[in-house]
Description:
Shape: rod-shaped
Strand content: 15-25%
Number of strands: 14
Largest sheet: 5 strands, antiparallel
Mean pLDDT: 79
Oligomer: single chain
Low-confidence stretches: 269-281
Number of helices: 10
Distance between the termini: 127 Å
Helix content: 40-55%
Structural class: alpha+beta
Amino acid sequence: MPLIEVIKHDQPDxxxxxxxxxxxxxxxxxxxxxxxxxxxxxVKSGEALDLLQPGTHTLNTGNxxxxxxxxxxxFGGDTPFTAEIWYINKTVKRDLKWGTPSxxxxxxxxxxxxxxxxxxxKWGVRISDSRRFLTQIVGTQYGADSIKIRDFFIGEIVxxxxxxxxxxxxxxxxxxxxxxxEISNLSEIIQQKISEEFARFGIEVxxxxxxxxxxxxxxxxxIQDVFAKKMxxxxxxxxxxxxxxxxxxxxxxxxxxxxxxxxxxxIGAMLGAGIGIGAxxxxxxxxxxxxxxKMQIDNxxxxxxxxxxxxxxxxxxxxxxxxxxKDYNEKKTQILGDL
Length: 339
């Protein structure tokens, strides 16, 4: 195989981060061309050594001193040697997309039950430390693109996003239904958090934004159903003489939600755990009081319709002089006529 005389790489698209030159057979005197916004890194036995900046470089022991120490190149001549050359793209990638692979569970204190959310947006990065990035992210692979970067860091992004949104909801008391108003502030906080982690791998986060936070359709329907029944209870309870109807409808709302637990992480699971413990006791007490009041009214009505009791009351009124003998006789005749 002939020794390489000129080494260069033209980036095929904007998604490429790192590319490995396909041949490792090099020689002193060969030219390495590094384009603007590129760096060329020599690697030997897995160790990142000399780094060349943009320009045209003729390989000699002066510009590859670290590599020279390892392979003991003689001075001058066309001495052959083997080494890997990696081209690192230093341009900023601003339109990388991110999104939650699956819904993220969040406890919504304003609503009183957990909900699941999805989110997506864009972010931008730049390789700030070629050696660190190559050794910790690329490893022995032949390159890295935006897909590899996203797959490597998506877990970190989702984790920071979930914890940041939860903290914001607790601090401000807002519901997940109102969190969209906080998107700009949330984006800034999350960017600061992920920047610290990305820097460990030689990556600088240039921008990060959340474009949308939404609730899956099936989860939103559960929330709407619960709110609809609560409103029904509130409106119908206004026209009831007592509170038993409202208590019974409240029990129905919770029971309906408990019968639809979904995947175990939504509102049904939480309400199902509470049925029969906190909800059953006050509802039972309230319904018992209503039944006791009804029995007293029924007993009173029954006494008033009893002819014997009515005659006794009439005689008592006559004996006390509250009615005349004529009124007494007429009323007695009327009561006896009803038998």
